[in-house]
Amino acid sequence: MSPTPARITAVDTYDIRFPTSRGLDGSDAMNPDPDYSAAYLVLRTDAEDGPEGHGFAFTIGRGNEVQVAAIHALRHHVVGRSVEELCADPGTLYRDLTGDSQLRWLGPEKGVSHMAIGAVVNAVWDLAAKRAGKPLWRLLAEAEPEWLVHQIDFRYLTDALTPEEALTLLRRGRDGAGRRTARLLEAGYPAYTTSPGWLGYDDDKLARLARQAVADGFRQIKLKVGADLADDVRRCRVARAAVGPDIRLALDANQRWNVGEAISWTKALAGFDPYWIEEPTSPDDILGHAAIHRAVAPVKVATGEHAHNRVMFKQLLQAGALDIVQLDAARVGGVNENLAILLLAAKYGVPVCPHAGGVGLCELVQHLAMFDYAAVSGSTEDRVIEYVDHLHEHFTDPVVIRAGHYTAPTAPGFSAALRPEALARYTFPGGTYWSAGPDGRKGQSA
């Protein structure tokens, strides 16, 4: 008698919150006191000694329980599925989740409901990569182009990217992929750091961390701007003096400005030679980004961390509204949708510099950028992954930075698993940190 096929038995969810607001880590003009949080899930199976799948959506504190509930609402689509079939074709689950008409009404394909889909889909990819014995970036880079195309939902995209065009890009990307994989394992992927530039840091801390970033091998740093122009001028002066003229200085307004303000403010800071201005206005304002793009050149416009699906990226690219695509591993519908975004960027010849930081975003997005280099764009020119030195110690396979580069992951999976002790301490509200007293729960409500 043949063994019973392994199946998904549970989707366990956790509300994980870290008190980053206490040190103003992550602070910017729009988000002054974030508590970096993860709506975290574990896919359990009945396979003996089999791996589990881990995924999460990133939030910044209050409301994380809403994100956890949205993930829980998807469990009926997952529990009972064949593990082998699910891992062989994650695209089937992705289509089932985005096609649930009653839940789709809450989006469609945007916001809390879509981020929940991304968390579940990413957990499936984590499980699939573990079962294949490969880090996710290598699973993707070594996959057949036809299979990768099958993973993508081309609905709403074919006026910009057809399946045939995607297949051509992926087949072309196979040329030299082995050489680029070896290069990644040897040298890693270029990074830039936001760690010096949080808005709540004083000038001495900014200067000290900026100098340290250069000493550590980073060739680009980023500053948060947008609350007060005089403060921004002063902080840019401090940062430029600390790093010198040859290090790229990127600026991030975190959606703070109207279009006119974005143009005038960016021009006021142009003397500090900023490489890009990030999220200068509403992330949904495609025409506004296009107007800013035309007005502030040669300063580049970067956006995408809050672009809620592949259609937004399509329109940003079609409108010529950005110079840098900043996809996010957990904002859209997981790996499947990010495959579409990477291919759209390749079609339009726009470099991808992923958004990271947060809780585990560095761990996830490194896989997408490395796949892009190995098997899609074939280039790291003007491409860097954001790095923030927060919370990596809570992951079982944390990122490793050497000489300003992400070291290529070698452990099987998507690098998404939190350590058990992190769950025990930072689960809200019952974890040992949050139950310790009112100071631990400052600013939070369940």
Automatic annotation (TrEMBL):
It is an enzyme of class 4 (lyase). Gene3D superfamilies: Enolase-like C-terminal domain, Enolase-like, N-terminal domain. CDD domains: rTSbeta_L-fuconate_dehydratase. SUPFAM superfamilies: Enolase C-terminal domain-like, Enolase N-terminal domain-like. Signal peptide: none annotated. Transmembrane segments: none annotated. SMART domains: MR_MLE. Its cofactor is Mg(2+). Residues 203-299 form the Mandelate racemase/muconate lactonizing enzyme C-terminal domain. The keyword RNA-binding does not apply. Its EC number is 4.2.1.68. It catalyses: L-fuconate = 2-dehydro-3-deoxy-L-fuconate + H2O. Keywords: Lyase, Magnesium, Metal-binding. PANTHER family: ENOLASE SUPERFAMILY, MANDELATE RACEMASE, MITOCHONDRIAL ENOLASE SUPERFAMILY MEMBER 1. This is L-fuconate dehydratase.
